[in-house]
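Quick start: what a row looks like.
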Amino acid sequence: MLGTNFLLAIAISFSLSAVAVSLVVGAFKQESLSPRSSSERVFLVYCYGGYPGSEMHYYNSDADSRTGQRPDDVAFVGSEAPVITAFEGHTVSGTFSSGNVFTSEIAPGAQNLADFTFAGTGVNDYHGFNCYKDNKRLLWEGLDGLYEQVCYSQYYCEGA
């Protein structure tokens, strides 16, 4: 009887240790998936379709931007009318649905730079960004309200 109780005590202790290890590992995983991760990106894009225009697309995870996922948030740039506003040579701002304002300053003539070259800076309500010329890749396409949109990345900005 004593041997059985002893083995039961060891089994319970082992199970509790496994639970403790799982909780510690789970806490570590949660911390590494913080809302403001180092993989967040803001893309400065030109969109075409039913409502063409310049937009800023926010992705909490850069991986989603590489697989055609819809952006986590969108800020429109320019006037109310459908218009393509150049990002180069002046300050451009957009307000996301959260109220967070992203402001970019892309160098004049930056479209003449080699792809993936530093092109300017950006800032939002939380921190600064370095912006790089992108290769005009298709970032996202799909139904946006009533219109089919196709959006191409001109610049990507990552935390500085």
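That is the whole record. The beta strands are 41-49, 53-59, 73-76, 91-95, 101-106, 118-123, 128-133, 138-144, 147-159. The chain has two helices and nine strands.
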